[in-house]
Amino acid sequence: MIFLACFLLSLYLSLNIVEDKPLSNLIERGEEMRVIKERVEPSELKYLKFLKPRRGLTIKENQYYLKLLKGFKGEKEFDRLIQQELTADCLVLNGLLFEHSLTVFQIDTLLIFQNDVYLIEIKYFEGDFYTDDEQWHVISGKEIKNPLLQIQRSESTFRQMQQSLKLDYTVKASLVFNNPEFHLYNASSDLPVIFPAQLYRFVKRLNDVPTEISQKHEQFADHLVSRHLTDSPHTRVPDYDYDQLKKGVVCPKCLSFLSQKESKWVCNKCGNMEERADAILRTVNEFQFLFPNKKLTTKTICDWCGIVQGYKTVRRILNKHFNRIGNTNNSYFV
Question: Where does the NERD domain lie (predicted)?
Answer without folding.
Answer: 70-184
